[in-house]
Specification:
Largest sheet: 7 strands, parallel
Strand order of the largest sheet: 3-2-1-4-6-7-10
Strand content: 15-25%
CATH topology of the largest domain: Rossmann fold
Structural class: alpha/beta
Helix content: 40-55%
Number of strands: 11
Radius of gyration: 24 Å
Shape: globular
C-alpha cells in the first residue's frame, strides 16, 4: 500500500529552482519529508528552509546528477536521514539553444549527461530501494518536446524523447513489483531554466505570452505520487500538438520551427553563453522565471493604451451626444 503524501519521503533532483522547487514546497505543504538535490548549495538551503516553513522536513544535498558517485551519495544521505525513499522525481534539466552544428560538442554532451544519464542514474539508485520495500514511484519530468521536437534545441529534445523511452522500458521490467514509473510532459512553463540555458543562437531569448506556472506542474507531480499514471500530458496545447503531429507531422514540424523562431528567439543579437551548463548559477534561484510577470505588464500596458485610444476617439463623440441630448431636452421643455 502506497503511503499518503504526508507520510512520504520524496527525493527531488533539480530542486533549487523552477518545477523542482515548486514541487518540493508542494510536498512539504502536505507534510512530506523532502530531500532536495541540485548543484547550488546556497539555493538548496533556501529551498529547504521554505519547505520547513511549510510544515515538512527537508534535507538539502548538493548533487550533480551527471556523476554516479554524487547520486549514490544522495541516496545514502536520504536513507540515513529518513530510513527509506517512497518517491524519486527526476527533474534536473540543462538546455543549449542554437542550430545543432553551432552548439559546441561539449555543450551537447553536457546536456545529454545531465538530462539522460542523470535520469538513468536516478533510476539505478532508487529502484533497488523500491524493490526492497516492494513499492515506490519514479517520476521522470519530460516535456511536450518529448512528443514533438523543438528546433534549435536538438540535444535537449533528444533527451526528452529518451526520458519517455526510458520510462517505458522500466515499466516493462517492473511488472508486478508494486513499483510505478511515470512520465510527465508539460508544455511551456515559467521557470528559470530558460534564463539559464546556454545560448549559441546569436539571438536573445524571451517569451511574450503566458506560460504554465511551476506550481501547476507541482500539483500534477504530487497527484502522480499518490495515484501513479504511466504518462501525463499537461496542457490542452500539448494534447492538441500531439494529435496534430500524428495526423500531419510535416505541417506541425514547420509550425514548431516558426513558433521557436518567433516566440523564443528575439531579433536582438546576443553573445554566445554557456549558461549554467558547467557551473551552477546563483541567479534566478526561485520557482518561477519571471516571464509571466513580464507578460502581465505588457498586457496591462496594451490595455491602458487601448483605453487611452478609445477615450481619445470616443470621448468627443460621447460629449457631442450628451450636448445634443441636453439641447433636445431644453427645447422639449
Amino acid at each position: 500500500m502506497r503511503p499518503r503524501a504526508e507520510e512520504m519521503v520524496v527525493v527531488i533532483t533539480g530542486a533549487s529552482r523552477g518545477i523542482g522547487r515548486a514541487t518540493a514546497r508542494r510536498f512539504a505543504e502536505r507534510g512530506a519529508s523532502v530531500v532536495l538535490a541540485a548543484r547550488s548549495e546556497g539555493a538548496l538551503l533556501e529551498a529547504a528552509a521554505e519547505c520547513e516553513a511549510r510544515g515538512g522536513e527537508a534535507l538539502a544535498v548538493p548533487t550533480d546528477v551527471a556523476e554516479w558517485g554524487s547520486v549514490e551519495e544522495l541516496v545514502r544521505r536520504a536513507v540515513e536521514r529518513f530510513g527509506r525513499i517512497d518517491v524519486w522525481v527526476n527533474n534536473a534539466v540543462l538546455a543549449a539553444v542554437g542550430r545543432l552544428e553551432e552548439v559546441p560538442p561539449e555543450a551537447n554532451r553536457r546536456v545529454v549527461e545531465a538530462n539522460l544519464l542523470g535520469y538513468v542514474y536516478g533510476a539505478q539508485a532508487a529502484l533497488p530501494r523500491f524493490r526492497e520495500q516492494g513499492s515506490g514511484v519514479l517520476i521522470n519530468m519530460s516535456s511536450g518536446f518529448g512528443l514533438v521536437g523543438a528546433p534549435y534545441a536538438g540535444a535537449y529534445t533528444a533527451t526528452k524523447f529518451a526520458q519517455r523511452g526510458l520510462a517505458q522500458a522500466l515499466r516493462g521490467e517492473l511488472r508486478g513489483t508494486g513499483i510505478h514509473v511515470c512520465t510527465i510532459m508539460p508544455g511551456g512553463v515559467d521557470t528559470p531554466a530558460y534564463r539559464l540555458a546556454a545560448n549559441y543562437s546569436g539571438r536573445a531569448m524571451g517569451f511574450d505570452g503566458f506560460l504554465a506556472s511551476p506550481e501547476k506542474i507541482a500539483r500534477v507531480v504530487v497527484r502522480c505520487a499518490e495515484r501513479p499514471r504511466p504518462e501525463v500530458v499537461v496542457g490542452n496545447s500539448v494534447r492538441t500538438l500531439r494529435l496534430a503531429h500524428a495526423l500531419a507531422p510535416r505541417i506541425v514540424e514547420r509550425a514548431a520551427a516558426r513558433t521557436v523562431e518567433r516566440g523564443l528567439l528575439r531579433q536582438e543579437p546576443a553573445e554566445s553563453s554557456p549558461g549554467n551548463l558547467y557551473e551552477s548559477s546563483a541567479e534566478w534561484a526561485s520557482a518561477d522565471g519571471g516571464f509571466n510577470q513580464g507578460a502581465k505588464r505588457r498586457a496591462a500596458l496594451k490595455a491602458r493604451r487601448a483605453a487611452a485610444i478609445g477615450a481619445s476617439v470616443l470621448g468627443p463623440g460621447i460629449l457631442t451626444w450628451l450636448l445634443l441630448r441636453k439641447e433636445q431636452s431644453r427645447r422639449g421643455g
